[in-house]
Every structure is written in C-alpha cells, then in structure tokens.
Amino acid sequence: MVVLSLTGCASPTTAPPPSDEFSTAFLAGGLPVTDGPSGLRSDAPMPQRSAEYSDGGSIDQLVLTAVDDVEQFWASTYPQTFDGSFSPVETLVSYDSEDPYGPEVCGADLYDEPNALYCLPADTMAWDRGFLVPTGRGFFGDASIAALVAHEYGHAVQYSSGLTSILTETIVKEQQADCFAGAYTRWVAEGNSNRFELSTGDGLNRILAGVITSRDDVLTPDQTDMIEEGHGTALDRVSAFQMGFTSAAVKCTEIDLDEIAQRRGDLPLILGTEPDGNVQSGEMTVDQNTLVSLMELLDKVFRPQSPPGLSMTPEDCPETASSPSASYCPSTNTVSVDLSALEQMSVQADRDDYVLPQGDNTALSLVTSRYTLSLQHARGEPLNAPSTALRTACLTGVAQRSMADPIELPSGQTLVLAAGDMDEAVGGLLVNGIVASTVDGSTVPAGFTRIEAFREGLYSSSEQCFDRY
C-alpha cells in the first residue's frame, strides 16, 4: 500500500461496561480507566525552583511546578534504577522563541526556535514559554507539559547515571527519554503526585496525542542518517512511552539500537522513489480498485475458508448497527463501505493542519479491521464484546505487518506499506478508535489500550491475537 493515516477529532462510542472476563479492555497499562480531572491540582504547592529570564507568568509557573514534580519522582525512582543518588539539573532557563532579543541558551540563539531542551555542557534545561509550551498546553493540557518536562529531564538522568554519552545515537537517547516520560506519567496516574492528576481515559489520550505530534517527519531517501539520529516515528515514540508506563523506569535502560531495531522490524522508515527519481508521496487514491485489491490481499494474508464479500455502498444489516465509514454484516459475510467517507478520511493531513496524521492508511486500516470481524465470526467469537475491539485491533496489526512486503494479487495492483503508514494508523486508533472497535463501532475507552492491542498484532500471529484476547 501507500501510507496509512488519520485525521480529525471524532468521539468514539464506548463499549458496554466490562465483565470480569473482559476487564483488560477497561485497563490502561494495568490501571483502571478513569474519566476525571487531569492537569494541575487546584491545591498544588507553589514551585520551589526558579528559572533564569522568566517573566514570572503562568506558563513558567506551570513548567517549574512540573520540574519540582519530576524531581520528586526521580528522587525516589533513581536509587531503584541506577547506582548512586539523584542530582537535580543545575540551571533552568525560560525563553520566548518569538522574541528576537531573547537570551542565548547553551551558546545558541533560540529566536524562532520553539523547543524544550537539555544542554549537557551547561547542565541546563530550557523551554520556550512563547509558543511551544502554551500551544502544547492548549491542545493537550497541563499534564502533557509535565510529560514534556519529564522527557527533557530524562536526558539529564541519562548522562548523570552514565546510561548514555555524547557518542550515543540520538534515537536511543530520545527513545529512552520517551520511556522515562512514560514511567513518570504512570507515577502521576497512580496518584503519587501532589501537583498533577491524570485520568487514564481522556487525560492519558491527550498526552499520547502530544507524543504522536512530536514525532519526526516522514523520512526521504536523503535522510537515512535520521533513522539513528532522529527522534522516531509516532509508533517508535508511543511504543517507548508505553514501555515506561507499563514496566517502570528500569525497563527504559534496556533500550538500545538493537532493541529499537527489533521493535521496528521490517516496517518501512523511508519513502521510496519513482522510476524518474522523484520521491514517492507514500499515498494512493482510495477508490474501488484499491479496496478490491485490499480485499484480495487480506484473503492471501489470512486465507479464510469463506472470504467476506465487498459492497461499495453502505448496506443495512438486520442484526447489528453499522459502524462509521465501513461495516461488517455477519449474516451476509459482507464488508460494506461508504466510499465517499473513506475518500474524505484518506486526504493527507498532519500537524500543520492541527490534526493527528491522516492519509490513505487511515481508510485502509479501517476497512482491514472490518475484514477481521469476519475471521472472528467464522470462529464463533462474539462480535460485540469489549474483547472484540482489542482482538480486532490486534488482527489489524497482523495484517498491516504482512503488508510490509509486496504480495502478488490477482488484480495486478500491489499494496505495500510506505513510510508514514504507521503514523496514520496510530493516530487513527487514538482519534476515533474504529480500528479497535466491535461490529457496531463501539470501542474501548483508553486510546492507550487500543494502540497497545494494535502493537501486539504487529509482533504476533493471528492465533496469538485469538489467544491473547
């Protein structure tokens, strides 16, 4: 295929309350999914640390409060993870990237450079109060700023502990820092912070959205060095964050180039080139021919005894409500699609459009998820249970991994994953969750859990998905 992407903001329908059998669907990294306040506590203590060049405003107060919180986290976590004792970062600097006369940080002019960073030679952490932090706060909430601070503080911990050096590849340092941010976020979600609180439903979803937004741009053939010297794809960054959230900070110390390569497997990281030498877009038109080829490909991947049919128009199904854009009807064993809706959601969009990544795989992964319901129906599995949503996401991951290599199709068309497709799939799982939904489109409440089930499929077989869920 060419690219899998995702857009907009739709509120997914949540599946019914859990029974004990399906309680995993209502957990996020092992914690119960909660809907409640997230962000700075109303009774949070005033920050104890100060920043050079601060304007004393609410943005700097928020960041400094987060610094205090992350330092409290590391004061207790550091001795459990590393030898020695924890030492706080020496200097904190606030700057305004929109001010051409702002201070230099670590010898660099940061005008028009919205960023948050840690500078090793000066043992300094800095943040942009002019654009980056207020924009992130506006879109993703106060708790996302605490996670951002935890990421940057993670770089200081790497060096002070000897986990990394200036020779360590950037991708390793960034993935470790994402993982440390996940471990800190878990600490907050468990109620250990007296400064921040976090719901594991919408609150955690918004932090994940911030993680996805901070991914690298899709790489082109002249950027191969960024495979090791970038920050990572959306899948890279979310995976590392989830490692820390579920397995604590000590797990983050295991991240190195080999571990990252194992997680990436053969998923494409760089866009290909056309015969004329131009870089491919990674996108293709989602039309009837494409969907027919997708169904052919899925038949080859899963080899069902009775492959589902394809209807190019939405159809009424007597026993179940349809799910948005694409549906599966058990009585007719048919996947029906709303082609105009799929075309709309496959239009390429990204953070410049103030949405999570969207493209052709936004639509194609969604149709794939409806196909996997036919596999479950053939085995007599329930199609409206909470576990159905996670099994569907897992099986979709299996299918997507199979698309990393060309598969010869009767139609003559080839659908192969392109760089950027996983960004779109992960974004879609967070935004609307249809890829991780039941036959009527109901999904589980935590985007964290939907993405986790999809990732499980990327590294598993169909049988393992059925066994797991």
UniProtKB/TrEMBL annotation:
Biased composition (Polar residues): 320-329
Record protein name field: Lipoprotein peptidase LpqM
Region (Disordered): 1-21, 34-54, 309-329
Record keywords: Lipoprotein
Native source organism of the sequence: Mycolicibacterium arabiense
Pfam families tied to this protein: Zn_peptidase
InterPro entries referenced in this protein's UniProt entry, alphabetically: Uncharacterised_pept_Zn_put (IPR007343)
